[in-house]
Amino acid sequence: MKEIAYIVYYHKHNFYSLNAIVGALETDEVFESIDFYFIPTQDKLKESIEEVTKKYNKIMVGISFYTTQLFETQDLVRIIKRRYKEKVLIVAGGPHPTGDPFGTLKMGVDIVVVGEGEEIIIELMQRIVNNEKIDDIKGIAYINENNRYTYTGKRNLVNLDKYPPFPIKNTRFGAIEITRGCPYVCYFCQTPYILGTKPRHRSIEIICRFVQELKNFYEDLTDIRFITPNAFSYGSQDGKNLNLEKLEDLLFNIRKILGSKGRIFLGTFPSEVRPEHVIEETLNLILKYANNDNITIGAQSGSQKLLDSCHRDHTIQDIYNAVDLTLKSNLKINVDFIFGLPEENEEDIKLTIQMMKDLATKGARIHAHSFIPLPQTPYANATVKKIRDLYKKEIKLLTSKGFAFGDWQKQERLAMKIANYMKKINIK
């Protein structure tokens, strides 16, 4: 019987990050000391913990979550800790725990992984298996024996080539992360504040190694998707000036492995592209190598004043150009907008509505979002207001005609709760 069970809460919205964690564990000999359980739902998670506690001396539950999952995760953690107390060690990581480690610990989590988790999880699991102290592991937060909050300090950023994007031995495949870090520091986005502003790219050689793994497993039905803050920035040193040669080299080599039957998806879920990077050359790469019939860009607002205030670093004209060029290339385009951004006034709303109408008339689809304050961003403590009736009227009209979609109404309600939470704990 193995000493430790690692129960992975393999939620459909979080499995990409958990793939990276389990994949990292597979690179170390500590992997041999662990039995893994991948559980997709809360109900099954509770059932699994009940069974696993009868078989193992040590049980770790791994959870990754976004701020939008804060309240459901709070409830889950409380149920687990109330029932199993010290029998189960809950380790949480991901965007929200990294941005709000103290608040996450107050929920009942035992250890928070702050930042990138590949190196941390290996070291942490080694200590747990060997019954050793964890207080000198960089990059974690916990409540010490004196009931005081303890953060062990920032860890160096990870070299992506050292770790797989998903587990091979546990056969949990998914999108391949090709780039981590973003130079644009948009005030509503956590990515640059958690993962750094200098892009780090997984090498073509390593990416292709895992493409081959997928090809070997799925044979002719292989789909390749990418995780990246900006799909066209692969290979760029600064993330702003494109390296088209490197991007094409990546796509060429993947296509060589897949042949004609495998599919490549670039610039669409689970990533998107910047408006100013939609040019004839990048669109031609999609047409030449990829299989998606659409791309997604982030516009966020039709007001240049608002784009500047949230540090978007692109222009209104960049958005129109991206839509025109994409549609001219016979590709569809989805355009993200965020309603209720801080500092938004009635004039900004009218400009955004006009842009949405313009783009819909051209043939674009509008993807509507409500602003949600996120920890460790400049807008963490921003005031959240109800979405203006003017927005609601126009977006409902566009939606009824098939020109818009999105969960903005659900996000609006959730944003109010999150904003109250942020103010209550004075999150920074």
How would you characterize the largest beta sheet? 7 strands, mixed
In CATH terms, the superfamily of the domain at 4-151 is Cobalamin-binding domain
What is the topology, as strand order, of the major beta sheet?
Answer: 2-1-3-4-5-6-7
What is the rounded distance between the termini? 45 Å
Shape: globular
Mean pLDDT: 95
Any idea what the radius of gyration is?
22 Å
- What is the strand tally? 16
Strand content: 15-25%
Low-confidence stretches: none
CATH class of the domain at 4-151: Alpha Beta
CATH architecture of the domain at 4-151: 3-Layer(aba) Sandwich
The number of helical elements comes to 15
Helix content: 25-40%
CATH topology assignment of the domain at 4-151 = Rossmann fold
Structural class: alpha/beta
Helix and strand topology:
Layout: E1 4-9, H1 15-25, E2 34-39, H2 42-52, E3 58-64, H3 70-84, E4 88-93, H4 95-99, H5 101-106, E5 111-113, H6 118-129, E6 140-143, E7 149-151, E8 176-177, E9 179-180, H7 191-195, E10 200-201, H8 204-218, E11 223-227, H9 244-258, E12 263-265, H10 280-289, E13 294-300, H11 304-309, H12 316-328, E14 332-339, H13 346-362, E15 365-370, H14 389-400, E16 404-405, H15 408-425
Parallel strand pairs: 1-2, 1-3, 3-4, 4-5, 8-11, 11-12, 13-14, 14-15, 15-16
Antiparallel strand pairs: 5-6, 6-7, 9-10
